[in-house]
Design brief:
Blueprint (H helix, E strand, L loop, with lengths): L13 H52 L26 E3 L2 H4 L12 E4 L22 E6 L5 E8 L1 E5 L23 H6 L6 E3 L17 E5 L1 H10 L5
Parallel strand pairs: 3-6
Antiparallel strand pairs: 1-2, 2-5, 3-4, 5-7
């Protein structure tokens, strides 16, 4: 009589299952990190595009009016602050998004900060005062060299616009709530939020650090005087 062979089935041991789960965790971790980095990159690119659109809209406003718009504040609903006998009452605040017909939030849901040199936003106390080719900006844009020292990127700047980045330090939410800077050392982001609105820093992003100048993820654009003047001349608005 022929013997029927028997087959034995073996399941995975706990050790084998643990090894498989460990490998899967490593693979998922390797996938999630690039996805997070890709999202951060997309958000920065989206915000950079919005900043460039704002800069173009500011210069377009100047071509039409002969001066740059006033900043908005939290009470104006996105419209530029009301002028007093033609003069702009504030120099730093929010981008006047309804006046410019633009979106008002960066990719992280924060309002854009805007500072404008009074000489370019009509600082006259009587009739409307338009800027000329002799007008000078009072905003300074700096960066940091490899050793961490501040270096000038641009001076005599008419206007600048800031996104406070992913960490949102000092940014305003759409609800008008300012996000406090929780870092003990965040020098350059503090500069970009200063009430004076005359000094700004634009540099490579850096992670939180206990060493000066600390964390940085702001995005900064500015309206160069030469570019603004060229637009005005090309449109026949200057000299």
């Amino acid at each position: 009589m022929q013997r029927v062979p028997t087959f034995h089935q073996h399941g995975f041991t706990l050790v084998e299952i643990a090894i498989v789960m460990f490998i899967v965790a490593l693979l998922l971790g390797g996938m999630l990190l690039p996805l997070s980095a890709q999202q951060d990159l997309r958000q920065r690119q989206e915000t950079e595009k919005s900043l460039n659109d704002i800069r173009d809209a500011l210069m377009g406003y100047a071509v039409v009016n002969g001066y740059l718009p006033c900043p908005a504040d939290l009470s104006t609903g996105g419209a530029e602050a009301a002028r007093v006998t033609g003069a702009c009452p504030i120099r730093v605040g929010l981008v006047p998004w309804t006046t410019l017909g633009l979106g008002h939030l960066d990719a992280w849901g924060h309002l854009f900060r805007y500072s404008v040199t009074p000489a370019f936003s009509n600082d006259g106390t009587g009739p409307i005062t338009k800027f000329t080719l002799a007008s000078t900006g009072d905003i300074l844009i700096q960066t940091r060299d490899a050793g961490g020292a501040l270096q000038t990127l641009a001076s005599n700047v008419p206007a600048t616009v800031v996104s406070h980045g992913k960490n949102g330090a000092w940014a305003y939410t759409e609800a008008g709530i300012q996000i406090a800077d929780s870092a003990n050392l965040n020098t350059d982001e503090d500069t970009n939020a200063a009430a004076a609105g005359t000094n700004f820093v634009s540099r490579t992003p850096s992670a939180p650090s206990a060493v000066t100048p600390g964390e940085f993820d702001d995005l900064v654009v500015w309206v160069p005087a030469s570019t603004l003047f060229n637009r005005m001349v090309a449109a026949g608005k200057l000299p």
